[in-house]
Amino acid sequence: MNGADSDSIEGMLLSLGMEKATNGTADLVLYNTCAVRDKAEHRMVSELGEVAKAKRLYPSMKIGILGCAAESLRPSLENRHYVDLIQDGKDLEEMKEAVLTLLPDEIELTPDVLSTHRAGHLSGMVPVIRGCSYMCSYCIVPRTRGLQRSRPLEEILQETEACLDKGSKEIYLLGQNFLAYGRDLREGLKPEEMVRAVHDAFPECRRIRFLTSHPHDVTRSFLEVLSSLPRVAPYFHLPFQSGSDAVLKAMRRITTRAVVEKKMGWIREIWPQASISTDIIIGFPTERASDFDDTLSLVDSLDLDFAYSFLYSPRPQTRAWEMGDPIPHTEKVDRMTRLQDLLGSIWSRKNAQWIGNTVSVLVEGPEKSGKANRFTGRSPSWHPVHFTSDIDPTGTFVDVKIERSGKTSLGGVHV
Ligand code: SF4
């Protein structure tokens, strides 16, 4: 979500003739930072010290803090005299208007300055909902981003078009709670109707993805429609956070293990080609050893293709904050290791099944190893694919024959 907002703000600034700074003496430095966990906040705060030093050498530099961290860190940011703007991320247009107040005088504003601009990235991020109306006890999103506001279909189509015009090759439709799309719209559009409208309006867009869903809201109708749309990538991210009903209750997740199992079963039944991933929080304050065993047994039974696991960190202004952080860090790390070992064995087995298949890969660029003729991209099922190619196919879709598999990626050759 922050990435999508940043792309839009960057596109606006580029449309005004500004350029990306490369040498540390920028007119404008903007941070648009996540606050879901404390890690990103810590990184931004430590970098701010360096930016403050640069501003001493270049006093006309303006510094703006935007998004969720601007809200969660507001009191401490207000004490930093070198910060020129603190603007929460509830409303993109307000963020953009606030950024405009920091521009040097010689930048002339255009009449359409606030309309849809995109910087243009390989993956175009299009938020379909801002905020979230659920109240998970560990989550700061409803506070930093506000309650759910679905965007009208017209805006979504307009922004998708802007991304494609700027060269995006795939579209991510984003909502903190994607499947709740439309409930707050007068016309009552369902999420599957919105995805179908985007799919049908842009036949040139070869890949559409969506994030992130809550198990409570998965419907058979959504799965039936999505599985029938050929350019929707077969990948479903469905965070369940814990396999213990007691912990789910304390998390206020309005779901149970049985519901998670049922909804995962629906995905396997109705959209069998879809890979499935989840998010898991380790060390929530009420998580006993037996609760964590429940998480392991759920992971084991679901045969997940990916899982993103996080050590719990308490966030101020959430309900769970008052529970403290009673589980020792070493215990959390031990639980994480056990989970990773289990996931590693599942993934090794599942990924080996891809060997011999040819998959369509959207190429992100050269492989990080720096080896010649090696490139990286993602398959429709979200697998990172590292492969060999005689040409540089960055930014295009190519077919890759899978010859190797590892725990977290696939390897092959461009065919
Ligand atoms: S559904 Fe997601 S975004 Fe909404 S409160 Fe729960 S964890 Fe946060």
What are the key terms here?
415 residues; alpha/beta; pyruvate-formate lyase- activating enzyme; OB fold (Dihydrolipoamide Acetyltransferase, E2P); 3 domains; five-stranded mixed β-barrel; three-stranded parallel beta sheet; 13 helices; 16 strands; binds iron/sulfur cluster
Write the SSE topology:
Blueprint: H1 2-15, E1 28-32, H2 38-57, E2 62-66, H3 68-72, H4 74-78, E3 85-87, H5 92-100, E4 123-127, E5 129-130, H6 141-145, E6 149-150, H7 153-165, E7 170-174, H8 191-201, E8 207-211, H9 220-227, E9 235-237, H10 245-250, H11 257-270, E10 275-282, H12 289-302, E11 306-311, H13 329-352, E12 358-366, E13 374-378, E14 384-388, E15 397-405, E16 410-414
Parallel strand pairs: 1-2, 2-3, 4-7, 7-8, 9-10, 10-11, 14-16
Antiparallel strand pairs: 5-6, 12-13, 12-15, 13-14, 15-16
Helix pairs in contact: 7-8, 8-9, 12-13
The structure holds iron/sulfur cluster.
Q: What name is given to the CATH topology of the largest domain?
A: pyruvate-formate lyase- activating enzyme
The level of helicity is 25-40%
- Ligands in the structure? iron/sulfur cluster
Number of domains: 3
Q: CATH top level of the largest domain? A: Alpha Beta
Catalogue the unreliable spans: none
* Shape category: globular
Return the average pLDDT rounded to an integer.
Answer: 94
Distance between the termini: 35 Å
Helical/strand content category: alpha/beta
* Beta strand %: 15-25%
Classified in CATH, the superfamily of the largest domain is tm_1862 like domain
Number of helices, where a helix is a run of at least 4 consecutive DSSP H or I residues:
13
Across the major sheet, the strand order is: 12-13-14-16-15
